[in-house]
Write a sequence for this structure.
């Protein structure tokens, strides 16, 4: 058994590998482990149960700072040494945290200046986690010293397969408004704009007498009596993401001086975390890792899970990635923390695998008995190893073992969805036409409709190469640069099909409105011009000639070469176009000038998908059955995940991996279960054969 077994990873376009203590073909199966919360006699039991479950990668020392540096002048590695050796002896790889995510009480007591300040000027105190200012040079000095000590001690240890910088950077402390952060913000602005004249132009400071005459006058967007300058807010979002990224890079550089093991941190590609532009972060990690939890505050948590997995794969440029955290059952931080029903954890986990993950890990191994997360589910629950939850963990471990041959394969897709954190920030600022238009909601609506059509989506950043796709969808891309818009226009001109939804192309990178009519940057591509937005109030809607209804948004649109696909049949815009199609070069640009109801949106996209020549893997499967293909050099692997309460049947030919059975003509998937079929490569994706 070699310790150099590989987990494929990617930095930019360079492939490297993470060692695994298990066979090279195994998928990673693991967890956060917090042995410091338990007496040592429990550790041996944990090793036995981890081996039984098939766990092969364990994250430790995530919150270890106070344990390994109990005082400023004292390091105590004895317990960490012991647990690393114990894991190594049990052939379990270590994902070693630097321990810097939350400072110990002695540090914030000695240096209260490291504590973060929120936009109203008040300090946030220790007692939770991440109580530190990302710009604080004092915090960085102590944190980097700890990182160096950990890296020197364990950098060459054969158990260490992966480095874990901090933890969920920006989850709580992404934005700090203290004077230290103000100085860092000014330095970032000087690097971006060089001159005050350039900044004043970009921020539009002629408005409301905001023109700056000295850099020292500029502050973070602290709480004001009125609305703040939107470009100032947008730049503070950019700065805050970059500031945390620079912190990550600082730790990563230390680790790479002392170790050849890959370095990463756990992203949070999810609907409720907006603070990091992960398109900028992804090139700096050796393997993309994501944390994801079902969010029952959303209308469709299941579809959001799939979107997050596809977006994480997009950050990895299509290469395999790791799910660093998810939950076995309930979390502890939502208003109502819903448990997962039997089989749901398996379906959630294999959805991530279907959409590109080569590793599935959980928070956490053993459920805590104290602290804020004591009611957060774990692989080993309070009820112990005889519980149904632990039985499900064993089943998942066996399933990942059965799927080991898919490792390194890639997801098949003919459709790209353009997604932008900058557009998210800008769209959701205040003083917009309608508070009902939220960026991520519009993205999820389009994604969900494609999901229900059986269409797998690649999530790409603005400006990415689109030539490999039959269809590109651009939802609510309110902010877009000239270059990014040109890439989309060139794609359509060369024969591509593009769908653009309302409130797209409106402003440039400085949140400056593009003159001449909406949708701004996409007017020529779409062959339309709108002169006024007319948002709808509350439950108000408009009937369309297609039979669909428009909600939330309408606008006064005139044709400039496009043809009407659907027009309004009620309200003041009756007879005007709501949905249009424009022949553009060799391709087509479609425009949705209103928010179609769910059924209408699905029907519209079905038409577009067909015209673009996109082959759904399993057409019209509906909201209950998810079908995704991963492709290796030799085979296709078809994942069929039945989320419904009725049996699903699909045409298929090949070998089903989870149950080791031949499939000859038809695949039956019982309610709530998953099947994975190895098949020959399919030239089209409309049948599973």
């Amino acid at each position: 058994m070699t310790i150099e077994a590989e987990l494929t990873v990617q930095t930019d376009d360079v492939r490297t590998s993470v060692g695994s203590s298990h066979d090279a073909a195994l998928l990673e199966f693991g967890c956060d482990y917090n042995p410091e919360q338990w007496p040592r006699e429990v550790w041996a039991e944990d090793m036995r149960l981890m081996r039984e479950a098939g766990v092969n990668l364990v994250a430790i020392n995530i919150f270890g700072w106070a344990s390994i540096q109990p005082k400023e002048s004292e390091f105590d590695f004895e317990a960490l040494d012991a647990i690393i050796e114990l894991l190594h002896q049990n052939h379990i790889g270590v994902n070693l945290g630097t321990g810097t995510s939350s400072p110990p009480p002695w540090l914030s007591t000695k240096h209260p200046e490291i504590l973060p300040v929120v936009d109203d000027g008040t300090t946030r105190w220790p007692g939770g986690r991440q109580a530190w200012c990302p710009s604080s040079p004092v915090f960085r000095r102590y944190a980097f010293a700890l990182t160096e000590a950990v890296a020197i001690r364990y950098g060459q240890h054969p158990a260490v397969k992966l480095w874990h910088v901090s933890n969920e950077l920006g989850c709580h402390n992404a934005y700090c408004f203290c004077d230290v952060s103000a100085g860092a913000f000014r330095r970032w602005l000087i690097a971006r704009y060089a001159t005050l004249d350039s900044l004043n132009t970009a921020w539009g400071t002629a408005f409301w007498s905001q023109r700056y005459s000295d850099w020292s006058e500029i502050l973070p967007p602290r709480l004001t009596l009125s609305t703040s300058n939107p470009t100032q807010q947008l730049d503070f979002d950019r700065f805050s993401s970059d500031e945390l990224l620079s912190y990550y890079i600082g730790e990563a550089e230390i680790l790479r001086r002392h170790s050849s093991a890959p370095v990463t941190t756990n992203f949070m590609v999810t609907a409720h975390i907006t603070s990091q532009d992960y398109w900028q972060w992804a090139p700096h990690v050796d393997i993309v890792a994501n944390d994801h939890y079902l969010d029952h505050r959303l209308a469709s948590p299941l579809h959001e899970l799939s979107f997050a997995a596809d977006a994480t794969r997009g950050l990895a440029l299509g290469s395999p990635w790791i799910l660093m955290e998810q939950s076995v059952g309930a979390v502890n931080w939502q208003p109502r923390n819903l448990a997962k029903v039997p089989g749901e954890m398996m379906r959630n986990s294999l959805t991530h695998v279907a959409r590109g993950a080569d590793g599935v890990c959980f928070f956490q191994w053993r459920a805590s008995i104290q602290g804020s997360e004591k009611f957060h589910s774990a692989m080993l629950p309070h009820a112990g190893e005889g519980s149904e939850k632990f039985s499900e963990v064993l089943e998942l471990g066996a399933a990942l073992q059965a799927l080991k041959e898919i490792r390194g394969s890639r997801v098949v897709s003919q459709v790209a969805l353009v997604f932008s954190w900058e557009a998210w920030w800008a769209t959701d600022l205040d003083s917009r036409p309608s508070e009902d238009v939220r960026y991520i909601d519009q993205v999820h609506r389009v994604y969900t409709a494609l999901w229900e059509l059986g269409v797998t989506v690649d999530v790409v950043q603005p400006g990415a190469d689109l030539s490999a796709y039959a269809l590109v969808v651009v939802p609510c891309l309110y902010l877009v640069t000239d270059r990014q818009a040109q890439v989309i226009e060139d794609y359509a001109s060369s024969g591509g099909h593009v769908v653009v939804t309302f409130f797209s192309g409106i402003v440039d990178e400085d949140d400056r409105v593009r003159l001449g009519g909406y949708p701004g940057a996409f007017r020529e591509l779409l062959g339309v011009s709108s002169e006024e937005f007319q948002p709808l109030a509350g439950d108000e809607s408009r009937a369309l000639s297609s039979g669909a209804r428009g909600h939330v948004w309408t606008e006064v649109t005139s044709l400039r070469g496009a043809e009407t696909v659907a027009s309004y049949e009620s309200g003041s815009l009756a007879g005007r176009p709501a949905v249009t199609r424009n022949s553009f070069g060799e391709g087509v640009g479609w425009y949705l000038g209103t928010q179609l109801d769910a059924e209408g949106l699905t029907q519209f996209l079905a038409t577009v998908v067909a015209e673009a020549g996109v082959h759904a893997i399993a057409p019209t499967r509906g909201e209950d059955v998810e079908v995704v293909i991963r492709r290796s050099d030799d085979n296709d692997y078809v994942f069929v995940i039945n989320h419904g309460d009725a049996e699903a049947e699909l045409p298929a030919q090949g070998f089903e991996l989870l149950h080791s059975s031949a499939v000859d003509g038809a695949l039956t998937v019982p309610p709530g279960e998953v099947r994975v079929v190895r098949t020959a490569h399919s030239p089209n994706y409309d049948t599973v054969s």
